[in-house]
Task: structure prediction
Amino acid sequence: MRKIIGGKMYNTETATNVGEYENLQDISASNYYQEILYKKKTGEIFLYGKGNARSKYGVKCEQNVFSPGENIIPLTEEDAKIYAEKYLGVDEYIALFGEPEE
Result:
């Protein structure tokens, strides 16, 4: 997916996947979604998410009718750290931000 936000290009095909999260095991569930954290060559970090109709990525088509959707969300370094702490593993966090203090 490619998207221009604030005059900057975000492209999942040219950025590096640094970690993934899925909210459910069953991909057919109406509220299933997947998120992938990406890092651009410039060092910027963004979140790509896609999900089924009743997920946070679902798109309202008409009243009470939703379809699957996707989105790109730019993150500050601090927001990316908070996301990584919550949804990624220790090794993924360290690979992205370095080893934190004890």
Remarks:
- The first helix runs from residue 77 to 87.
- The radius of gyration is 15 Å.
- The chain has a mean pLDDT of 95.
